[in-house]
Amino acid sequence: MTDSETTGLTGRWRDAATPRDTAKWIQRAQEVADILVVDAVERDRANATPHEEVRLLKESGLVTLLGPREHGGAGESWETAYKVIRAVSRGDGSIGQVLGYHYLWAWAARLVGTDAQISAVEELYTSNNFLFGGAVNPRDSDLTIREDGDELVYSGHKSFSTGGQVSDLTVLEGVLEGSDTHIFAIVPTAQPGIVFANDWDSLGQRLTESGSVDIRDVRVDWASAAGFTDRVFQPLTYNTLNVPAIQLVFANFYLGIAQGALETASAYTRTKTRPWPYGGDNKAHASEEWYLLDGYGDLQSKLWADEALLDKAGAEISAVLHAPREELTERRRGEIAVQIAAGKLRIVEDGLEIATKVFELTGARASASSVGLDIFWRNLRTHSLHDPIAYKKREVGEFVLLNQIPEPTWYT
């Protein structure tokens, strides 16, 4: 995607009315996907930092989808955001992931911040159309935080920092020296103390800029420590919604990737796949072949079922994310987490089946590198390894057999 091409494509929204309802925002997201899909394979292979793709997200208005209307945002719900992530991912799974992570980190102030911090952060990112990244990887050692007067000083290394090099703001998380106190803070990305290693070179999701980052004495005012008043944090069950919220982000861009795979494959079959001439029931067109009709029917029915399950989970978590924080109970949080676990495990298994089966439904010539069907399997396979799906099955099983809800952790 060249600079001139992107400028021309995004200019289409310059005089367009801002979408004012869910359907129009999803339509806008699909327009973005239609732009991205044109050269998704070429951009994936180039593995370049996606500056232009992020500019596309910003100019379309999708970056401030959850931002308050009084600051120029769309004021939309998480239920809409999940569907937008899914739509963008049909065109490019990497960019859908970057957008989904942004939504989660843009909500970080609401998850743990004070009322004043929430107001300040939302005005900052919405009015400036800023994109978030996050240096918060639980499997690494935590960043260390030392106190220096009225400042906190973050230092350490993180193996993954999705969206890092294309972000305007970065969420940091670390542990205060001499304690077990975790502290989140939001800082400008462009500063000498945040150093990206440019080492992201994965099988899939290649444009997510998820490489490692060094945090070198990044300073934050104590007053900006998310959720702290007089240096004391008051926990709420609501604070733990970050994990189910982002697990559902994962599931929705997996669904978008799988939908993109089936759409791409079916278009290929309709126009290029040749009918098999040795079956005794010869057809004029491949789209009349009984085994292809059977195959596409099976895969599409699974996607429709997955979509319904994820939409239900999205509606339920959206309701609590937008409700007063004090109202959320541990039980309700756990019930929603189980639904999300069920949706995630289904789309991982169905999505990987789809991304593999499409080769059988398109034929040998569709395995050519120029067709690019491999991008869907590579993207889905890569990110679905984020945390073991077997544990999601166990969470659902414990709920069904033992009436147990998952204990909140960095992965549940």
From TrEMBL:
InterPro entries associated with the record: Acyl-CoA_DH_C, Acyl-CoA_Oxase/DH_mid-dom_sf, AcylCo_DH-like_C, AcylCoA_DH/ox_N, AcylCoA_DH/ox_N_sf, AcylCoA_DH/oxidase_NM_dom_sf
Species whose genome carries this gene: Arthrobacter psychrolactophilus
Limits of the Acyl-CoA dehydrogenase C-terminal domain: 248-386
Name under which the protein is recorded: Monooxygenase
Single GO biological process annotation from the record: L-leucine catabolic process
GO MF entry, a single one: 3-methylbutanoyl-CoA dehydrogenase activity
Keywords: Flavoprotein, Monooxygenase, Oxidoreductase
Acyl-CoA dehydrogenase/oxidase N-terminal domain: residues covered: 37-117
